[in-house]
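#lab-general

N.A. 3:47 PM
ok so I finally got the sequence cleaned up, no stray characters, all 153 residues accounted for. can someone with queue access submit it? mine expired

B.Y. 3:52 PM
send it over

N.A. 3:53 PM
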Amino acid sequence: MKREEILNKKCIFDTINLQIMITVQTTINASLAHVWECFTKPEHVLHWNFASQDWHCPRAESNFKEQGNFNYTMAAKNENTQFDLKGTFLQIKEEQLIVYRLEDGRKVNISFEVEEDAVKVIESFEPEELHSHDLQREGWQAILHNFKNYCEQ
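B.Y. 4:20 PM
back already:
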């Protein structure tokens, strides 16, 4: 095989394997230990894991360890719609990083960075195909905003 053919195949292969990631972030005025606990403990997740005030998270279960599973129910308060967000934790670095794969195969990375007296939370996720990227970004950012408000109260 000629060098040019190899390069062309490499480019096709790389193009196929590139994955779009959407990133949202917030800075929380709280200690890293507090932010980490609020993000990882189901009893806290119940209070912030929803995108708007007409939704809530009535159930949160988590086996927070690598290869452990989670299941968070997100539901409309009028009870006409709900869904379970399920996944498996792939990598956990205490107070630094969480990587998980959702049940549908999409990957999510969350990093926690200390900035003076605050913590920057950066969440990157592979989008699904049903909704626009803008709508997904807005939804995940709204959830992260709820998380910030919960941590800072």
